[in-house]
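Hey, weird one. I pasted the Leucine-rich repeat receptor-like protein kinase sequence into the form twice and got a warning about non-standard characters only the second time. First submission, copied straight from the form history:
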Amino acid sequence: MICSKLSSNTAGFQPSERRRDSSMIVHCTERKIRFAGSEISIPMASSSPLASICFLFLLLNVAHSKTLKRDVKALNEIKASLGWRVVYAWIGDDPCGDGDLPPWSGVTCSTQGDYRVVTELEVYAVSIVGPFPTAVTNLLDLRRLDLHNNKLTGPIPPQIGRLKRLRTLNLRWNKLQDAIPPEIGELKQLTHLYLSFNNFKGEIPKELASLLELRYLYLLGNRFIGRIPPELGTLQNLRHLDVGNNHLVGTIRELIHFEGSFPALRNLYLNNNFLTGGIPAQLANLTNLEILYLSNNKMSGVIPSGLAHIPRLTYLYLDNNQFTGRIPDAFYKHPYLKEMYIEGNAFRPGVKPIGVHRVLEVSDTEFLF
């Protein structure tokens, strides 16, 4: 740790790193800890006596900093709209804690300068009933919003686009409906988007292609119609795309229309829709693909041999389509391929599956977050 006495006019003053009393500013090399439900920075171990001063200043700052009024108001509005299962655990007026009162359950705060702000809100599996709490969109420093496995209804409000710092949005297993607002494309820092198992309808908004940091996109189990926007293929960081169990149409050729589509994609779930056409040879250009789930569509044609040359292809589900011909021998020699389901097609006699058929209703990673 380095602590040094700095002049009061030092350039580049950062409130989170330097604290001023009547005679000096103390600059400390810090590390993050959690204290009373808030993330704070403390100085690392040092033989310098100023280390104790740094640590004391930081603790006093946390103890006396106030929660931003904007966030207090927003959380209390949310509290007033939620059911008793949540409210009974939210004691006091300050969601970040006040005096002897702890922070509200599911609320995480961070210290920014002289104030505390709410950065995470996790209230899931507590049977919240009613519309999406619009007051959430006033928590402008929110990085994680998790309201999954409740009974929320109605649409996602367009004001969701105000949460510019949001990285994770988890609303799966609710009863949300209507179209996804295009304003969701304004969440430029979003990496994880979980909207599975709701009643969303309309087309998948192409504005999702504006989420350049997006890695995981779960849209399965809704009522989406139309074609999957090929613009999603331009997402350089997207690893997992699941649009299964909807009412989507179109072809895979349309989906990978853009050159270099889906460069990082590992898992592609297109199952249980109304996709037509064949498997284009260009799909083999998705060299990071590990899971390809095409079951229960209306696809046809032969299986291109190039697909067997995807290096780490592990699971291939082709069942219940209208495929014909033979399965190229290269699939049976693939070093990673564990399962290949082929029943319910018009393959030539003698074509055999790989692995033991098990029904996959949701992707394995759906329950990890």
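That's the output from the first submission. The warning seems to come from a hidden character in my clipboard, not from the data itself. DSSP finds four helices and 26 strands in the chain.
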